[in-house]
Amino acid sequence: MRGIYFAGNGMLNSLADLNTISNNLANVDTTGYKKDINSFRAVYEREISSYNQKKQKLETLGNLYAGTVLDDISPTFSQGEIVDTGNKYDFAIEGKGFFKVERDGEFFYTRNGEFKRNSEGYLVNNSGDYILNVDNERIEVNEDFFVNGNGNINNTNEYINVVDLENHTKHGYTLFQGDEIEAQDFTLRQYSIEKSNVNALNEMVNLINANRKFDILQKAVTSNDGLNAKISEIAQNI
């Protein structure tokens, strides 16, 4: 039975990899998307002990681990390719940092710089979330606005708010929340967007490998199940 458990546990891990890789591939063209990776941890099953005759007590030999389980799915923040679009409402952050946006009074952070000017003249993203300045105020722009590399708007005292994050959590595909820290060593590029950091070729290779592992483990479960059935049959005939 232990062999079936180990193989079944491995199948669940491979299935988790398949789901994450498939999600990465589905977002290969999503602006500002950061690929996810899975991390696993060993699962403690029980402590192994041996009885010491001389000392007349149990002595711990070590721990027996039953396998691994999915522990966390976390994004990788490597830089995606920055491409020019010719659209003045498009922005990309070269380096570390996130745009700060407001949705229904709640703050989120994103690398997706596909913005637009709404009917009220405010700078928003494609979901209608307001882009904020360094005072956490909504940014009102005209048709001729421009932004320099440090986020300064029209040579005024207003700056697009770019911050870095600690203890981040992902919300949806391109939004994050976390603890703000000062963003350093970044350049804001207008007329550009940052593409997804997913390498489609690498993800396809990972997908094939995960599929192969799943198939091998599935065969192991079938083989172990058949072997256990045969052992039971022999035991009944003894």
TrEMBL record:
Keywords: Bacterial flagellum, Cell projection, Cilium, Flagellum
UniProt keyword annotation of Hydrolase present: no
Flagellar basal-body/hook protein C-terminal domain ranges (all copies): 190-232
GO cellular component: bacterial-type flagellum basal body
Name of the protein described by the UniProt record: Flagellar basal-body rod protein FlgG
Domain (Flagellar basal body rod protein N-terminal) ranges: 4-34
Pfam families: Flg_bb_rod (PF00460), Flg_bbr_C (PF06429), LlgE_F_G_D1 (PF22692)
Localization per record: Bacterial flagellum basal body
Keyword Endoplasmic reticulum belongs to the record: no
